[in-house]
Amino acid sequence: MKTITHRDKPTPSLRSLIAALLLAIVCPFSGAAQNDFFPTDYVALPDGGLNIAAYAAHQTLTGPWANGARTAPGELTTNLLAVRVSRHFSVGEQGQYTLAPVMVLTAADTDRNATLSALGQPVSGFGDLRLGAAFWPYIDRENRDYVLTGVFVSLPTGDYQSSQLLNIGENRIKTVLVAGWMKTLGERWVVDLAPEVAFFGDNKRYAGTDTLSQDTAYAFTGTARYKATPSWHWYGSAQINRGGATRRESTGTGTGAPENTRLALGTLLFTGENSQIQLRYAQDVEISNGFRNARELVLRWSVVFR
Fold first, then answer.
1. Does residue 228 belong to any structural domain of this protein?
2. Whole-model pTM above 0.85?
3. Please, which residues have CB within 8 angstroms of residue 152's CB and are 6 or more apart in sequence?
């Protein structure tokens, strides 16, 4: 059994800083766009098409960071499983548009090292239920060009313990507006662009009976995909996150926005006419506040029923 020394124990000032940075780790995939789109997600399916996607992910966060400097050798690890289900319906004159209701279910476990013991015990459980709808106002299936808009709402249904800071659920309502543009360039290249705006409700059971609020957050993601063969693709993406500063009501203190930049590399393999597997590695290359995504590995399997 390891003996905990004074070096392992967070100081009062560090404990306060970690508490202020809670919102950087409440969501298992912290400091990222709230809706994590993958290549081919912008494709509108034919009327009645059903898409089921399953995710398995592992993420390591380090920090916390404040004003671009790391303030402690903390480390958080999260394992996450998720399932996303969407059904596509053709609407409008001659079915020229597509509408797709979406549901996302998640489960995760999160652990921390001794430096972050003030956050509480390791946790596991279900994340918040996410419901939404995507709408395609422009569809060009022949040229593989699509424009998407959508709204998603996370409901406070996940596991949450107000007695500690580390949780899987967020205990608040979150509304996210998204857009996406998929453009095919020649025979080999595809470009995806995705802006996002997230609005956060208050967590009124933060650390017991306190209230934690968060400013509006903005994200922009760009992805370039190369078709090495018709069934095997490679892609790289860059994501910029801005806004999202937090405030604690009782003390008036909080943390600045993460202001982070994330890069990712991935590969996509079509395993059949209606199924695919993707593997993606990502990490933050720049961050101002919160916890840095030191490494993140996501495996995704997706199948379409027409």
1. yes
2. yes
3. 34, 35, 102, 130, 131, 132, 175, 176, 178
